[in-house]
Amino acid sequence: MRNFFFLQTFIQDLKYAVRSLRKNPGFVSVVVASLALGIGANSTIFSVMNTLLYRPLPYRGADRMVAIWETPLGHPDQWQPPPIAEVLDWQKQSRVFEDIALASGTESSILSGKNGSESIHIQDVTPNFFGLLSVKPILGRAFVADEQQELTQAVVISDSFWKGHFDGDPGVLGKSFTNHNTGIASTVVGVMAPGFAPFYGDRIDLWQPINPASSRYAARQDHWLMPVARLKPGVSIAQAQAEMDVIARQLEQAYPATNKGIGKKVQPLHEALFGWARQPLYPLLGAVSFVLLIACANLANLLQSRTETRRSEYAVRASLGADRQRLMQQLFAESGLLALLGGVLGVALAHWGIQIFRALVGDFPSAESIAIDARVLLFTLGISLLTAFIFGLIPALQASHPDLNNALREGGRRTVAGSRSRTRHALAVSEVALAMVLLIGAGLLINSILRMQRVNPGFDSSNLLTMSIQLPEGGQYMHRVPGGDMEQATPAVNAFYKQLLERVAALPGVESVGSITGLPTRFSEGYTFSILGHPETPPDQRPRAGYNEVIPGFFRTFKIPLKKGRYLDDHDTEAAPWAIVVNETFAHRFFPNEDPIGQQILLRYDPYPVNERRPRQIVGVVGDVKHWGLGQPAPPFIYASLWQQPAVYPGGAIVAHLWQTLAIRTAPGARRVGDLAASVKKIVSELDPDQPVGEAMMMDQVLARSMGEYHSYTELLGIFAGIAVLLAVTGIYGVMSYFVNERRREFGIRVALGAQSADVLGMVAKTGLRLALIGVGVGALLALGVTRVISAVLYDVKPWDPVTYAAVGVVLTAVALLACFVPAWRASKVDPITALRYE
Question: How far are the Cα atoms of 12, 315, 720 from residue 311, in angstroms, in the given order?
Answer without folding.
Answer: 20, 6, 36
